[in-house]
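Memo to structure team: turn this sequence into structure tokens by end of day. - J.P.
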Amino acid sequence: MWRSTTAVGLFVSLAAGTACEVGYPVIIETKVRATIDVSRFQSVLVAGFVTADFDSVDTNEEMVRLLRSQLKSKSRLRVIDADAPPIASGLITDAAYWKKVGEEHREPLIVTGTVAFERFDELQPMRAEARVSDPVTGSGRMHNVPMLDDRARFVLEPTFTFVDGSTGAVLYSRSFREEILYRPNENVPPLSAFFDLMDRLLPDFLAIVGHQAFYGQRILLK
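Reply from structure team:
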């Protein structure tokens, strides 16, 4: 009994002491080093991508435009503005081809790869309330009944390949997959879905070529 009373008294004392202490927020910075060393490059060229046909979105054009925009604002490398048409799949690992491209642009870091973007219309099971009437009495009650809900699923699968513009050799390659599901009444255009999915991938893409810093808040006691 004595031990129990002592433990309770100690807990109350600690709690009271903590309640009297004043905390203040401190911003904590966490740094993440780049996956590949790009210190010897002065510029970056986002070249064309291997793409599959998608009726309403030019995935090559949108990918090139988005990556250039992000690199301009969040990378120390100078972004080269040049034509970037879709490329044939066999060129991704063609060192001679990329070395020639590199010579034309003063040996930059080259970003290329593949992009697959697809839409799937699916029926998802769900339950909804519906009024079910008795055929004899005509009275009815609300019941949960199984139904099928038509939804649109978008899937984005890019592979980013980084090439040394001075040699044409592949430095690093990484694949991603993201998907998102929308209800029919949202009426999301495919291009908006593409950007929603890219928003998820961009931090990981940028971390490959540049140091990233993440900030969080901690409470320190005075």
